Amino acid sequence: MEIDELIELNDLMLKNKEEESEAADANRLFHQTLYRAANNRYLIDAINNLSNAMALLEGTTLYSAERVNIAFKEHQEIIEHIQLQKGKEADQSVRNHISNSQRVRIRMFR
Questions:
Q1: CB-count burial class (<10 Å; 0-12, 13-18, 19+) for 66
Q2: CA 20 to 30 Å from 85, out of 74, 78, 91, 104?
Q3: What is the pLDDT of residues 11-70, one digit of tens each?
Q4: Rounded to two decimals, what is the model's pTM?
């Protein structure tokens, strides 16, 4: 089941919070699993296009253990809403996670 995989990948990201590349790999797999679970071809195509563009940027937003802790909590919230079948809350949690990540990425350019 995808929920179990999401939990494992989120835990792996947290476990590797001192190792930027390993945390980023677990984070990438978490997001890929989440997209796959949505079973929406259009979403997957859009995300793949975004991922290709993001690959051109250097670094990861998971540059510190503190940022990994924040992302871990955001992921946990998303997982919990999905488990409870609270679609609106899950959607809002995803939007908050995206906004927070965008702010981090913009700060990285300064």
A1: exposed
A2: 104
A3: 999 999 999 999 999 999 999 899 888 877 777 777 777 776 666 677 788 888 899 999
A4: 0.86
Contact between 66 and 14 under an 8 Å Cβ cutoff? The reply is: no
| Structural tokens at position 84 | 């409870």
- Alpha-helical runs (H) found in 16-109: 20-38, 41-54, 65-83, 87-108
Give the distance, in angstroms, between the CA of residue 109 and the centroid of all CA atoms in the same chain.
Answer: 20
CA–CA separation, 91 and 80 (whole Å): 12
Q: Is residue 88 predicted with pLDDT exceeding 70?
A: yes
C-beta atoms surrounding 75 within 10 Å: 24
Q: Kindly report the CA angle at 29 between 53 and 62, in degrees rounded to 5?
A: 70
Nearest 5 degrees, angle CA 54-CA 92-CA 57? Answer: 10
Q: Measured between alpha carbons, how far is residue 32 from residues 39, 48, 69, 98 in Å?
A: 11, 9, 20, 14
